[in-house]
Amino acid sequence: MNVDSPSYSQSLQQFSQPVQTDYFSSYATTTAQTVDRWAFNHASLLSNLSQLPPDLLPTLLPQINQQLQLQNSQLNASNMSALAAAAAVAAAVSASASANAQVGLSQQQAMQVDHSFAVPMVPTGHVQQSVPNSAGVGLQYNAQGIPGTQITYQQAMNESNRDHILLTAHQLYSLNARNPVLIEMLQCLHQLHPRHLQTLLLLAYVYFSNGMAEKSLEYNKKILEIDPSNVDALSNMGTTLRSMGYTAAAEEKWWEAIRIRPGYWDAVESLLGVFCGASSNAMQKDTGVSSASVRKTGPRYEEALQLCEFVDKSLCQSTEPLRYDVDTKQLSRLQSLLYSEGNLRLTLGDVAGGRREYEKAIEVVLGGQLRLQDAVVRIAYAGAHDGVNQMFQAQQGGGQQMRPSAYKFNSLPLTLLTPENAARVLLALFPATRGVLPGFTGLGAAQLQQANQVSSNVLLALAKLYQDHALVAQPLTVVLPLYYLALALAPSPSTCNNLGIILSAIPSPPTSTLVPSLQGGRQAAQAPMGVALALQYYTHGLQLDARHPHLYTNLGSLLKDLGYVQEAVQMYKKAIEFNPKFDVALANLGNAIKDMGCVQDSIEYYLRAAKVSPNFVEAVCGLANAMAGVCDWRARDGLWTEAAAKWHAVLPTDDQMATDIFTVMSSGRRPTAAAVVAKVQRLLGYAQTPPAPEAGQLDRRRGWMDRVVEIVDQQLADGLEWCRGLLLVPPAAAKGDNGVHRPTRALIWFLDGLSRLLPEANGSPLAAFVHSARTLAQTVAAAGENTDALSSDVRRRWSAVVRQMRNEGGWALRLVERVVIGQQRRLYHQIAAAGGSDATSIDSTGPEFRRPQLPTGMASPHWAAAVGSDFGELDPEENVCIGGAYDDSSDVAGAGGWVYTERMIYMPHTYFVNDHRQGFREDEELRGLQQTPDDLWLAEQDARYRMRRELFPQLADDVFIFANFNQLYKIDPLLFRLWLRILERVPKAIIWLLRFPAAGEKHLKRVAAVWAGDEVASRVVFTDVAPKHMHIKRGRIADAFLDTTECNAHTTAVDILWSGTPVLTWPRHEHKLCSRVAASVACATGHGRTMVVNGADEYVDRAVEWAMRASHEYKFAYPAAGRTPILEPDPQTGLVRHRLCHGPTMDIRLQLFMNRDRSRLFDTQRWTRNLEKGLEEAWRRWVAGEDEADLSSPASISNNTDHCVQQSSVDETPPSVDERKKAWCSRIEREIAEAVEANNGDERMDVFAPAGRSIWVCDDDDVMPAQKWVRELMEW
């Protein structure tokens, strides 16, 4: 049987697997499989026996019978003459098969073990002769047989026997490429058949496998001498040359093979691998092969793309329909090439080209029946008849079912399918092939599975492309069908996971679904339909892989969002059971456990996540929050802070927990710039630079608080670098500060696009600025690198624009937002002019702008943060943020390093609104019993005394009770040290805290004992958290409330003031709203000067003064007739002992309690009226366009910090507090004077609202004129 015969070629194609990049291993595998099937298959053997010489049959019969025993078949002498035996193959394989049969190995298993092939021995007495081989070395061979066979030298001259010997060699090569008999056997064949190409090819393989690259090259060259267009030899030479370090020469050989045969996939894939890999510089040697110049290191994507394009164009026969000159069996390799071409185009920035190549990669296996877009449309149409999808459309208010012709690719409806129906989309698309892609109909099961997997990967990549780049108006309408098709081709838990993530974000009305139950099985729940389907896909994915950690994690997050926190915890635990180092699951588990109130238990999982990924921000910050939440300050920071140095407040750092945390935090990424390190130390209040650890010692310089500060600071620094270089080219370093930033093409394109949206005839300041900036950018760009030729005026004006663009990406986004807001303003003016009541009366200005829901955004923040902005709704200069009397930051946004981009509405008393006057009338029982104010005050003191004895029965009456009812996370080491100092100076005082959470009690007790001793620690008293009404009522027990300074009491401060208890607060951070809230509400009571201090020492001194000046006396009296006394009378005398307290806190308490119904803090109606005045003024200014600053002048851009679209550098050192306040006060006073003059000298006005600035609301019946009110605020 000749290896070149059609029957052999067909057999080879039938049983060959996809060829790998390494041509040697692929060729060996292919040949081994073919020979194995041919030699061991009974039918194949019988069909080819007649080709063997009859005189060999008696000799080979034992070996043939031994082989056929594996097939339960036997030859005998009677039919031997009618049959022929495969001499070379049967004889060579017999020894290997016998050995395998003895140990019970199957044929497939035998192919996987390390064979030591048994070579038939030469009979004794046979003469050994030496025959020169082609290399000039004497080759020893048996005079009666070829080495490794029982075929004589003369018999091997026959071409048929030659081919059988070659098959034997292939079998030997597949079992052991380094078999020593191979080279001798093949050299004999080469000696007898010097121009036989298959022998030369196998010789080249064997020499290469034995590490003899030079000999391999030699025989490949011999092949090319015989057949210069032999692509096998050319490709083999490329692989050999690359292994020798001659990469450039190897590339030439591969290219030569590809130009001869573009569909020679071995060479294509090898060359593509070199281009896309990090190839090293190839040292060029004198190889006799011309080579290109030395290549640069790194991927060469442009050359890789050129290769793909060449092969693509060479093989493509037509584009409509798409057809390639590729054998059906090789379509999968063509598909991989197109997939690679799409990836390359995306990498090089060609999104449209990448999309087209991905689509071609799918369409090439669709058999020319339809395009991919048509398949997506058909899935949408078929899915429209699914019950789930019909229910979804009905919930969304959809109309009648669309006809097939109405389905367009760019405007498809959202298609929701269950996993079961998604698996059937292939049957709906290709019923004739029973759901098999037309291009894969001839593949076997294993090959079909592999081809489907590649197709699925292409579809997933294409879906991500549509999702990331919004190639259609509604990306999910295309993304979901692509995912369904990918899942149908290759059921994958990862695909189910991605589908679950996408579906969970689809908003829709609730529907019934089932969620996992802790008791096993499923429990009914109400969830949005997208979420319900997401649950099904997560569950379906777990059916495919019950150990998939990502599925468990995302399923847990979904259950947590639905309120099933305990079930979510079980899912997270499953995830880390199958992957104990899955950092995301560990962090999520920590979050869920913390949300259940078990803050202490969450620390373990945060720490485990941080150990796995020290730079995982969520894990590090979660650990920091959890540790701070229970006041576990071990390894919080180093020992070098000012608080530690001044107050001897050394945090514990020597236990195992602290050691673990220091180890984790020290292994995270650390800023290297000296300025960043210095700033971190400054923010943490380091008194000195922490010393570096000695060799082998643990680095205790970085605790979890240091690490969090580093992370935040690094994120701010990264934000400044966002898009840097996209819009501006920095000047050459040689020019220093005198250089000019040059605009990029992207900036000119960007400004040109905005100019078209805002015609200069628009007349608005924003349009004037955009056109001016575009003209300046074009002028500077035209000058090129010769910026010295620019006039001083152009340089000055251009520098003003550049100063705004320190954060290039943020500047561009905010400018776009301003343009969108301008267009929306124009739309609303059209509505008003047309008399319409809503935006539906005027058509949209174009596809660039959606109809706005609100023309301006307003919010009342309870936390220190800018509202921010969003396309089409919010604008950094036109948003209004409701702020309190202390919120003086907005008008100095650019100059002081503030981050607020909005302007404020300043309320006259406080921004904090409450409804305690109506909601918490717990004293009505007192007011109903008492008649005079003195009686009411006495009754209040009796109620305080009774509750005090009930809650603290062992506490002496002369003990002063400090209290704080905030959550424990608001307590920091510096503040706690201040509290301990107060207790040290006031022996008869306690501080009353809440177990909020309970786990914090032991940590604070431990720290108090270390810092102040056991006696002081014993006076830190904890109670459980009370219900809201009881919480407010028992707030009267405390003598004074010590506020937390890092983050003040907010609602709690209002609760305490309503109960009459004074609040001592210190607005510790001027730039943090949360640090100034209590001061705002305290000032609204009229007692701000008494309850607000300005420093740590003043905080301690004021508290000590309050406690030391406190006193009490007892008054005995009979209860009033007809009234039930609050305190129990003495059973013997019938007298009631009233405890009457005196001191500064009681003076404040008397005023707070008796006047709270008239207090501005609790006057909700007054607060509402004042807010409405501010909102009306904000709307009036927006409609009138008074908020738009004049951006056409570069001077206004650089100087008017209220209006410029500017990003301040976090590295700038802000002016001092006094300097900033002085400048701010001067400007406000000047503008107030101008406003009073414009108001005909009347200082009373509803609002003080300078054009383009914040809005100051004045109270209706406030006795203070506006100007005096502002001055009072500034002095305060």
Residue share in β-strands: 5-15%
Mean pLDDT: 76
Could you give the distance between the termini? 107 Å
The main pleated sheet reads as: 5 strands, mixed
Widest beta sheet: strand line-up: 9-10-11-20-19
Percent of residues in helices: 40-55%
Class based on secondary structure composition and strand pairing: alpha/beta
Describe this structure in words.
- This protein has 1276 residues and is α/β, with parallel strands linked by helices.
- It has 54 helices and 20 strands.
- The strands form 7 sheets. Strands 9-10-11-20-19 form a 5-stranded mixed sheet, with helices on one face. Strands 14-13-12-15-16 form a 5-stranded parallel sheet. Strands 1-2 form a two-stranded antiparallel ribbon.
- Strand 15, helix 46 and strand 16 form a beta-alpha-beta unit.
- Helix 28 packs parallel to helix 30 (617-629) and helix 36 (765-783) crosses helix 37 (792-804).
- The radius of gyration is 42 Å and the shape is elongated.
- Mean pLDDT is 76; it is low at 1-54, 68-144, 280-295, 837-855, 867-899 and 1189-1214.
For the structure shown, list the relevant keywords.
single chain, 1276 residues, alpha/beta, five-stranded mixed sheet, five-stranded parallel sheet, 20 strands, 52% helix, disordered N terminus
